[in-house]
Amino acid sequence: MAHCYVHIPFCRERCPYCDFFLVPGTRLMEPFFDALLQETEARLCEFGSEPVGSIHFGGGTPSLAGPRRIGRWLALFSDRVEIKGDAEITLEANPEDCRKHVMGEFRTLGINRVSLGVQSFSGRKLERLGRKHTPDEACQVMQEMLGLFGNVSLDLICGVPDEDMDEWHADLEAAISLQPHHISVYMLTVEAGTKLQREIHWGRCTGPDEGFQAEAYLLAVERLTQEGFMHYEVSNFARPGYFSRYNSGSWRREPYIGLGPSAHTLLKDGSGERRKANVASLVRYISAPHDASTGYELLTPEERQTEEVFLSLRLGEGIALQQLQVIHRQRAQWLEGMLEKFMLEGFLEIRRGRVRLTPRGFLFSDHITQTLLPS
Looking at residues 159-165, what average pLDDT do you find? Predict the structure, then answer.
């Protein structure tokens, strides 16, 4: 099953912690969509005969494009590419931009999943994060979206400067009480070149407390699983049947095609696996949408194995023990010793022939994964 990601790189303004490729303001929205349609036309052949199982409009804030522009793209795409009847079509949005009648128009177009950038239900945290909605607005919009769509996700961020456990616990309980289908929990990170990094450097605020974030993460795992959410990926929790299909597909390395500036693509065919990335420049993208990518790179067997280990260990289902044994067949004794060490430390477990990280193991996933990568 193939998947499609569409990057719409516009936000009203950049949040202080964000390092995604985006452009503040919407002045170039119309020429961007003209370019997006041209790129889509030029790359339709890449989708082949396999039906598309999910479409994800990300960004940026893709809901700012409005139903008319999203509808133009969907009309072109659906006319030329087979989309599964039960395909998941996701739109990312911010609470302050969700007008009920506008979101209803998106639903009419075929959008059937909404991912809301709530981030917190604390006014203090929202201000720290540079968000423009209020806690009351977030709750109201969530309730409206749950009435419109059969699949609604929300994002939470933990580790905001000066956050305490009471504040984080209140965020979790507020999110649970709204009964979304999916919750993503992200630990605040300080990315190079962001406003947050500069404020920390200048001493205007403190950086995230790793000890607090670890405790907050484990609390999130405990509470959300108690409430029936499945911890299916390091940062993601869902009711049964509501895993994000697009994200799950990319983590499982199913083929996906990325459209728009900075979007990535993974194709699989008779020649092997090929990856490419589009240019991370809106001006270059608009001026030459037919030449938006940096070119395809054929992955080596070692690169494929590295990606399989790295991405599989992010998932709750983990990786097949037999697959690790094949990768490390020249040092089987070493692998057995490392797995035993991580199990004794409480970082991983082996069940039904699969190696999986525990909740505590997810906190050290970078170290564990690097250790288990092909040498």
Answer: 95
**What is the average pLDDT across 110-138?**
98
What is the per-residue pLDDT across 23-40, written as a single tens digit (0 to 9) for each? 999 999 999 999 999 999
Across 168-316, where does the E strand assignment appear?
182-187, 230-233, 236-238, 256-259, 264-269, 272-277, 297-298
Distance in angstroms (rounded) separating the CA atoms of residues 190 and 198: 10
- Strands of 264-269's sheet, edge to edge? 230-233, 236-238, 182-187, 152-158, 113-119, 83-93, 52-59, 2-8, 256-259, 264-269, 272-277, 297-298
**pTM (predicted TM-score):** 0.96
Cis geometry, peptide bond prior to residue 60 (ω within 30 degrees of 0)? yes
Give 278's DSSP letter. Answer: B
Q: Where are the domains of the chain?
A: 2-249, 300-375
* Residue position matching structure tokens 């990768």: 327
The model's pLDDT over 127-144, given as tens digits with 9 standing for 90+, comes to: 999 999 999 999 999 999
DSSP symbol at 204: S
Rounded Cα–Cα distance for residues 187 and 221 (Å): 13
Contact assessment for residue 90 and residue 55, using Cβ atoms and an 8 Å cutoff: yes
* CATH pick for 2-249 out of 3.20.20.70, 3.30.70.260, 3.40.50.1820, 3.40.50.1970: 3.20.20.70
